Amino acid sequence: MKAQSGSGSAVDAAELERKRRMQWWHEAKFGMFIHWGLYSVIGRHEWVMELEAIPVAEYEQLTKLFRPKPHPAKEWAKLAKLAGMKYMVMTTKHHEGFCLFDTKLTDYCAPKVCGRDLVAEFVEAARSEGLRVGFYYSLMDWHHPDGVRCAHDEEARKRFVEYIHGQVRELCTNYGKIDILWYDVPWPLSAEGWESERMNRMVRELQPDIIINNRSGLPEDFDTPEQHIRPSVGRAWEACMTMNESWGYHKADDAWKTPKQILRNLITCARDGGNYLLNIGPMPDGTVPEESVRILEEVGSWMSKHGDTIYGAEPCAVKSSVFANFTRKGNKLFVHVYFWPGSEWAIGGLRTKVLSAKLRLTGEEVKLEQDEFRVRFKGLPEEPPEQPITVIELECDGEPIQDMMFVRQNMPRRSV
C-alpha cells in the first residue's frame, strides 16, 4: 500500500508540475502559426515537393531563389500582437528537410544558403513584442537519405534518429528559453522507433518549462486537432487552422476565412477549454499576404475591445444557440452574438439565475425576463451594435448552466 501511495503522489506531483508549466498557455488561448520555407518560393502549397513528385536535386535549386528581406519576423510579431495573439510557433524544419536554423548536422539550412539564422531572428522578434516562443519541427524528412530508408533499415534508423535528436538538441540549446515544442508527422516510425521518450526527456532537461505537443507519438502535454475543432476529454488541446486552405504560401488559394469565421472559431475553442493556433503563410521574402494582414487587423480590432472575454476563459456549459456562442469567467457569461436577431430574443435552457445584463461595447443595461425555460432580452437595437460580433455580458448567481433536455422534457405542450 505504501508503494501505491508513493506512486500516486508522484503522479500528482507530475500533474501539478504540468499545470504550472501550462498555466500561461491556458490563459493565452490564441497563437500564431507560421509556415515558411523553400515551398514558399514555388507558391503552390507546402506539400508541393511530394504532391508534384519533385526530385530532391531539382528541389534543392530553390535555395538559389530563397532570399528573405531584412527581418520579416518583426512584421509577423507586430501583426500577431495586433491580432491579440499571445504566442508564436514557427516552422524550423518542415517536411522538405530545409532548416531555417543554424545546424551543424547539414548544409541544407538558411545560414549556409542566405547567411542568416532565420529562427534566431524569429525568436528575437517574438520576444521584443512580449510573445511566447514556439518551435515547429517535422520528424518526417523528404530530403535526408535515411528519411524513408529508416522504416526498413535498422542502421539507417539509428543514423536518422541521431540526426533528428541532434537537431532537436540544437533547437533547445541555442536560442534561450523556448516555450513550446511542436512536433509534426512521425511517419514512418513509431514512438519507439523515434526513441521519443529519450528525445523528450532530453528536451525537458534542456528546457524545464517547455510544453510539448502529442505528435512525437507520445501524449505529452497537449493534443493538436488540425483544421477542425475537436475538444479532448481530460486533456489540454489546441486546434490549429489555416486562414485559407494552405499552410505554406499558395498564391492561387483565395479561399480565405472571414474575420467573423476566425473569431467564431476562437470563441468556440475558448468555450470548450482549448486554444486556437491560426496560421500565416509568408511569401518567399517573408512578406505576409495582404489578405492575411487585413483579416488579422480586423480580428485584432475586435480583440482589443473583447479579448478579456477570451483570455483565461473557463470551460463553459452554455453552448446551444443558432445565432450566438458563449464564453465564461466565473459567474459571468459572455454572449457572443454573430447573427444579430433583432430587438427581442432569448436563450433557452439557462438554468442559472441572471442578475444583470449589459452591452459590453457601451455598458448599457439590457432588459431581461427569466423563467425556468429561458432568458428573454428586450429593447435591444434592431441592427447589431457592432461588427462582426456583438457581446452581451451576463452576471449570474452561480456558474452558468444550460439544460436543453430539461426544456425538451418539461415545456408545456398544447393538449390535443
Task: Describe this structure in a few short sentences.
Helices cover 34% and strands 19% of the residues.
How helix-rich are the residues, as a percent range?
25-40%
Low-confidence stretches: none
CATH class of the largest domain: Alpha Beta
Oligomeric state: single chain
Number of strands: 15
Measured between the Cα atoms of the first and last residue, the distance is 64 Å
Major pleated sheet? 8 strands, parallel
CATH superfamily of the largest domain: Glycosidases
Average the pLDDT over all residues and give the rounded result. 96
- The SSE order reads HEHHHHEHHEHHEHHEEEHEHEEEEEEEH
The structural class is alpha/beta
The CATH architecture term of the largest domain is Alpha-Beta Barrel
Please tag this protein with its features.
416 residues; alpha/beta; Immunoglobulin-like; 4-stranded antiparallel sheet; 14 helices
Report on the structure:
- This protein has 416 residues and is an alpha/beta fold.
- The protein has 2 domains: 9-309, Glycosidases (TIM Barrel, Alpha-Beta Barrel), CATH 3.20.20.80; 324-410, Golgi alpha-mannosidase II (Immunoglobulin-like), CATH 2.60.40.1180.
- It is built from 14 helices and 15 strands.
- The protein has helices at residues 2-28, 39-42, 48-51, 56-59, 72-83, 110-114, 118-128, 146-149, 154-173, 191-194, 196-206, 259-271, 290-306, 404-410; strands at 30-34, 87-93, 132-138, 180-184, 211-212, 222-223, 236-241, 275-280, 324-329, 332-337, 345-348, 354-359, 367-370, 374-378, 390-396.
- The strands form 3 sheets. The protein has an 8-stranded parallel beta sheet, sandwiched between helices.
- Helix 5 packs parallel to helix 13 and helix 12 (259-271) packs across helix 13 (290-306).
- It is globular, with a radius of gyration of 24 Å.
- The mean pLDDT is 96.
